[in-house]
Amino acid sequence: MRYDNLFNDLEITTDPFALCELKGQCNIGLSQDASATLHYILSGEGEIAFANQPPLRVARGSLVLIPALLHHSLRSYGTSRDPVPECQPAQLHLARLMAGEGPTGGDQMTALCGRIRVGLRGVSDVIDLIREPLVERIGETSAMQGALQGLLCEISNPKMGSRAMIRALLTQCVIEMLRKRLATGRQLEWMAALADPMLWNALRAMLDEPGANHSVESLAESVFMSRSAFAKRFTEAYGSGPMDLLRALRMRQAAALLRDTDLPVKRIAEMVGFASRSAFTRSFEANTDLSPRAFRQLHRGG
C-alpha cells in the first residue's frame, strides 16, 4: 500500500466535542479513554501532564492527539490572558468540562476536546497504532489554520451538512499531521507497516479481530512468510513485535467494551482472547492501573 493510497482511504469519525475551561491554576484529569483524544487549545497556556512521561507544554494554537488508554490531564498555568478566538464557543451545544477557579483568579485556558477514530479500508481504529502523542503548533501561517477555524465555526454554529464538513476538516488536519511526520520520520514506524502490503494483511487481521487466537506463527503463515522473517520485518517496520501490538489492541478493545456495553467482565475477557477473567484482570490493571470494574464505573458513572 503506497502512502497516497493510505491517505485516500482514511475514514475519520468523532464523538461530540466538549469545551474544557480551566480558570486560574488548576487541572482537569481526563483519565484513560478507550478512544484516542484530540485537544485543540483555544486560549491560555499550560501543559498536558502524563503519569509516566514528561508533560507537553501547550498554548493557544496547540493541537494534540493523545493515544487511547494514555492517562493524562490538562493543567492551566493561570498566567495568560489570551482572548478566546472570535468564533466564540459560547454557543457550543456541548458538554462542558469545568475546573474550579484557582488562586490567581480569572486567567483561563480553554480547549476543545473530543474522541476521534481513524479507519482505513473498512478497518476501524487504525489510530490505535499510534503510541506517542502527536503535537502541532498552529500559527497564522500553518496549513491547518483555516481548517481548524472552519472546524470551530461548524461546531459552534451547526447547520445542514455540518457533520460531513467536520469530518472533512478533521480528515484534512489528520492528513497534515501525518504527512509532516512522514517527511521527518518521527513517530511513524506504524505507517511503514501500513505501507507494506504483506504486513498490512497481518495488521488487518489483528485490528479486525484482536481477540482471535493469533500467534507469530499464524500471522506469518497468513502472509506466506517464515516465522523469523515475519517477526524481523514486522519489528523493523513497526518498532515492536506483533504480540506487543496485539496485547495493546486487546486492551483497547476491552476498554471500549467496558465503556460501551453491559457485557459481563468474564465475557469481555473471552472476547479479547483471555482464557480466564483473572488473567484478563491482571493484564488490564497492568495497562490502566484500574480494575475492569473500576474502569467501567469511571466511564459510565456507576
Give an account of the 3D structure:
The protein is of the alpha+beta class and 302 residues long. The chain has 11 helices and 11 strands. It has helices at residues 3-8, 145-156, 162-184, 189-195, 197-208, 216-222, 227-238, 242-260, 265-271, 277-288, 292-300, and strands at residues 10-14, 18-23, 26-31, 36-43, 45-50, 56-59, 62-66, 72-76, 96-99, 108-120, 134-137. The strands form 2 sheets. Strands 1, 2, 4, 7, 9, 10 and 11 form a 7-stranded mixed β-sheet that branches. Strand 5 (45-50) and strand 6 form a beta hairpin. Helix 6 packs across helix 7 (227-238). The longest helix is centred in the middle third of the chain and has 23 residues, at 162-184. The chain starts with a helix and ends with a helix. Mean pLDDT is 79; it is low at 86-96 and 101-106.
Q: What separation lies between the terminal Cα atoms?
A: 44 Å
Order of helices and strands: HEEEEEEEEEEEHHHHHHHHHH
Q: Structural class given helices, strands, pairing?
A: alpha+beta
Which stretches are low in confidence, meaning pLDDT under 50 for 5 or more residues running?
86-96, 101-106
Extended strand count: 11
- Report Rg: 20 Å
Mean pLDDT: 79
Query: What global shape is seen?
Result: globular
Our estimate of the beta-strand percent is: 15-25%
